[in-house]
Each structure stands twice: as C-alpha cells, then as structure tokens.
Amino acid sequence: MNFYEMIQDLSLALQREKLVIFVGAGVSKNSGLPTWGQMVQIFAEKLGYPTKGRLATEEYIRIPQYYYCMDDSPGHASYYQLLKSMIPEDIRPNLLDELIVSLHPAHIVTTNFDTLLDQAAVGYQIIGKDRDLLTGISSHYLLKLHGDIRSPEHLVFKEDDYLQYSETHRLMETFLKSLLIDHVFLFVGYSLNDYNLKTFVSWIDYIAQEMQVKKEMHRNYFLSSSRHAGKDYLKKYYEGKGLEVIGLYQLPEEVEKRTSSVCLQEELGRKTYAVLNLLSNVSPSP
User: Fold this and answer.
1) pLDDT tens-place string over residues 172-225
2) Count of C-beta atoms within a 10 Å radius of residue 81
3) Which of 127, 211, 262, 270 could form a disulfide with 132 if both were Cys (CB 3.0 to 4.6 A apart)?
C-alpha cells in the first residue's frame, strides 16, 4: 500500500467509527515530558547502571525493577516519588493531543501516565483501572492502560508490573483484545523497538493466527519515527504481523511541506500532526 492508500483506509475506519488511536510517550514529548527511554535513563543514572549504547528491550522494564528492589524506604516511597517528579502537575495538552481528540476516534488508548489527554478528551469516559469498565456508560473511552501519575502505586512501569499485567488488569486486557478483532488501530508516539508496541503487535498476530483469519483480517497502522522505516525488510516483517508502517521520514513532499506551518517544537510532532490532519478527509489525494 502506498501512503495515500493507507491514509484512505484510516479515514474510512474513522468515518465508520472503527478507528482506535493508540498514543505513546512521543506525543507527550511535545508538552515537554520525557519519553519512556528518558525516564528509564534517569533510573539507570540513580543506580549507576551502565547505559552506553542502546539498551536492550528487556532493560527498559528491568532497570526500574532494580531501583524498586534497592529502595528500602517505607512503601518504596523513593521509587514512587522519583516517578512523580518526572511528570509535573501543571503540564498542558499540546496540539497533537487536541488533534487526536478532535478526530473523535471510537476510542483513545494510551500507555502514558500523564493527564494531557484527560484534559483534552471531552466526550470520552476515562478508564484507568478494571473496575471503571464495570461502570462504563459511554460509547467512547480514553483507556489508560498503565495507570495515572496521580496514583503512582498503580502504575505499570517496572518488570513485575508487566509480568503480572494479565492478572492485575484482566478486564482492560480482555477489552483491548476484543477491539483488535474489528477495529483498526493506529499507533502514534511509539518506536519500532518499544516493548509496549511489541506486546500489542504480538496480540494482533496471535488473534489472526488463532482465528485463522490472517489473510482476511484488517490492517493496523504505525506512525514510525525510524529513519529506516522505509526498508523493505522492516515493511515485510511488520506486514506479516498485520501492521502497516507509515514512515514519518518518508512522507510525500506535499505532506512534508505542511509540517512547517505546525506550531510544535518537536520535528516528529510536526510530522505526526501533518499526517493525522489528513484523516478528516475520507478520500485524500496527492
């Protein structure tokens, strides 16, 4: 599929109320917040953990676990306070948060701890824990999969949190997996190596194979910040897992030109905004 075919498919899913936008830390970065990797880096520095070169995927959840285990303060208060210190309370939504909400997808899902989308998501019921689903009365949810910084003890950040997720967040996981069956997912603000993205892609792949509908199943999409996203081997790899990659560094020239008028400091934020802004047009053309 070329760029405009993918935009058209996403636009049609949006029109049919079948689009779910999945929001990662790359979106919140446009409000001045650290990415997941930068948060882990702070924990690593506190520990004296060597971080020269790129961290392995499993280290992103293991380093916070090391800190937690080393923290002998009452109730691991030092661990939770360090997390809270990384996300100021006075942050405000950025243009990307506002655009995502204005598109009005069926649901918005995020692994972010901050409250940026909460502030912008008028018309969405916020689901921060399993019990919220039991009392849900809205047809549109903002699903906060990994919790809220206002309740740091319930955040999903360290290794144990991830390993126990299927037990501690059983309803949220079940609901999310049910959406994968008939909704189109668009992942925004994640890297190709993101642990969370890999988890959700594995769910998509498993569901398609388990139900033996791999060829018939709808496509899901990922806005990639990698300069290598256009490589054939990456495209084929993710296509085999039901994920189409839209490379933010391989945009059509006319879309790239639109980024200069976007009032965001982050280059990737401007590129993301230019792409998402096309979705309101059901039949985009170059």
Assistant:
1) 999 998 898 889 999 999 887 778 888 888 877 777 666 655 566 688 999 998
2) 12
3) 127
Hey, is 113 helix, strand or coil? coil
- CA 32 to chain CA centroid, nearest Å: 17
- Same domain for 49 and 19: no
Identify the bridge partners of residue 84 per DSSP, sorted by sequence position: none
Cα separation, 159 vs 161, in Å, equals: 5
- Could you say which DSSP state residue 34 is in? P
- Distance, C-alpha 198 to centroid of its chain: 11
Q: Identify the residue whose tokens are 């949190």.
A: 161
Q: For residue 194, what pLDDT is reported? A: 79
Whether 73 and 215 share a structural domain? no
224 & 119 share domain: yes
The answer to whether 35 and 200 have CB atoms below 8 angstroms apart is: no
- The token pair at 240 is 């085999």
* Same domain membership, residue 227 and residue 99: yes
Question: Are residues 57 and 113 located together in one domain of the fold?
Answer: no
Domain annotation covers residue 106: yes
Q: How many CB atoms lie within 10 A of CB 131?
A: 10
- Which residues does 220 contact at the CB level (< 8 Å), separation at least 6? 180, 184, 185, 186, 187, 204, 242, 243, 244
> Which residues are 184's β-sheet partners?
19
Task: Give domain status of residue 27, yes or no.
Answer: yes
Dihedrals phi, psi of 233, to nearest 5 degrees: -65, -35
Task: Please report the pLDDT score of residue 268 as a whole number.
Answer: 95
* Residues of the chain under the 70 pLDDT cut: 208-217, 281-286
Q: How far out from the chain centre does Cα 203 lie? A: 15
- What is the bridge-based pairing of β-strands 220-224 and 243-247? parallel
In a domain, 285, yes or no: no
